[in-house]
Prior knowledge:
Largest sheet: 4 strands, antiparallel
Oligomer: single chain
Radius of gyration: 20 Å
Distance between the termini: 10 Å
Number of strands: 4
Shape: elongated
Structural class: alpha+beta
Amino acid sequence: MANPQLDSLDYKILQMLSANARKPYLEIARECNVSGAAVHQRIQKLSNMGVLIGSESLIDPSSVGYDTCAYIGFFLKDPSHFDQVVQKLKEIPEVVECHFTTGQYDMFIKIYARNNNHLLSIIHGKLQSLGLARTESLISFKEVFKRQIPIVKEY
Length: 155
């Protein structure tokens, strides 16, 4: 359900920022027909509400030596240890996402490694000691596209 505290200006700002997080506030203001100060205040409000949770510079993993992307489903020996496993996963910098899921896996992670040998060393050296019954891995050959969620005002 849409957030009732957001109005059409908030949605327009979110649409522009989701397309380009580095878009200058004054350019957003011109396109929205409001002042730069109004845009700044709205972005602060959206951040304080937790709607905007930051901005990031995206790095092409292969350009910095991480040529293998894998998704790994975990079967935990004891699913009640989820929080402890998450804390240990946070200490492994190659793990870039972690999800608590429904379906066949207890958890699902996304991981980047330099190559398949590096991935194998992470699985054997860092993941197996987390209390896993077993894992299933999927290696991504290529990310075809990645995008933000669509920002639409629900009426």
